Amino acid sequence: MTRSRSRRANEAWEALLTAHASLMKRFAAEPIWGELSMREYDVLYTLSKHDEPLRLFELGRGVLLSQPALSRLVDRLADRGLIERTPDPEDGRGVRLDLTEAGRERQRRVGGRHAVDVARAVTAALTDEEIALLEAIGRKLAAQGAATPAQRNRQEAVL
């Protein structure tokens, strides 16, 4: 009996989420985090990928936290001197967030060790071809998730 495309899609999604949860637990158990939680590191990493300071809502697009939880986490990181707030030149009421030099250094130090752990886990399980395919699939799904509802409707109409 063949599975429907919809069922296969849901089973693939479940496998992806299960793999993510399993790997995140493995990574969280590594002794690299020091005084940072993985969520705090995620915020530092997201800020490190941008050349310009970000507004809170922009930072929120790159992390898996609710806006209130992200606000509290940013407050803690700022209190610890890892993130700085600067006035938004385009909106006098708003602020922009960026890494301090201490935050940048902490992200680099933890990030380098985390990258080794990720590479070890992925290369142990996948061939080079599978790694390339995983990257392509991940980027394609991320682009679909970032599309606006109108863009998604146009894409679905083409399918």
Automatic annotation (TrEMBL):
SUPFAM superfamilies assigned to the protein according to its UniProt record, in alphabetical order: Winged helix' DNA-binding domain
Annotated keywords: DNA-binding, Transcription, Transcription regulation
GO biological process: response to stress
Domain HTH marR-type per the UniProt entry, residue ranges: 9-143
Domain of life of the native organism: Bacteria
Record flagged with keyword S-adenosyl-L-methionine: no
InterPro entries per record: HTH_MarR-typ, MarR/SlyA-like, Tscrpt_reg_MarR-type_CS, WH-like_DNA-bd_sf, WH_DNA-bd_sf
UniProt name for this protein: HTH marR-type domain-containing protein
Protein source organism: Glycomyces algeriensis
Taxonomic lineage: Bacteria, Bacillati, Actinomycetota, Actinomycetes, Glycomycetales
